């Protein structure tokens, strides 16, 4: 029987034996390597072949131009604000999600632009884009 002082016992207790930890980690690694291919099995299904091209449905775009004096042009044709409601309602009814591209003159009053945008939203045409020129000119 060996007698050790308290300082020697504390030094022995402070060491961590890494061998069992490494053994456990290696066993877990082997288990995962063996089990991983078993988890990725898929059912083989022969799918039918199709020779068609997927349809790329592009939304219709409507060009709405507003001049500096407040005149409105729907796809290049002059219209009034009253007729604009009918055109917007007709477009919203026949096309799934049309986009409205607003080409407003730089001197157009904001009130006119806001009124047109409100009418568009009320008719269900919420996709609005603004067309502008690059800053070169």
Could you explain the architecture of this structure?
The protein has a domain of 70 residues: Nucleotidyltransferase, domain 5 (2-Layer Sandwich), CATH 3.30.420.270. The termini are far apart. The mean pLDDT is 80. The protein has 4 helices and 5 strands; from the N terminus they run ααβββαβαβ.
How many helices?
4
Strand content: 15-25%
Quick one: how many beta strands? 5
Order of helices and strands: HHEEEHEHE
| Helicity level | 40-55%
Rg for CA atoms: 37 Å
Distance between the termini: 100 Å
Largest sheet: 5 strands, mixed
Question: How would you describe the shape?
Answer: elongated
Short description:
This protein has 137 residues and is α/β, with parallel strands linked by helices. It has helices spanning 6-13, 19-39, 81-94, 110-122, and strands at 61-66, 72-74, 77-79, 99-104, 127-130. The protein has a domain at 61-130: Nucleotidyltransferase, domain 5, CATH 3.30.420.
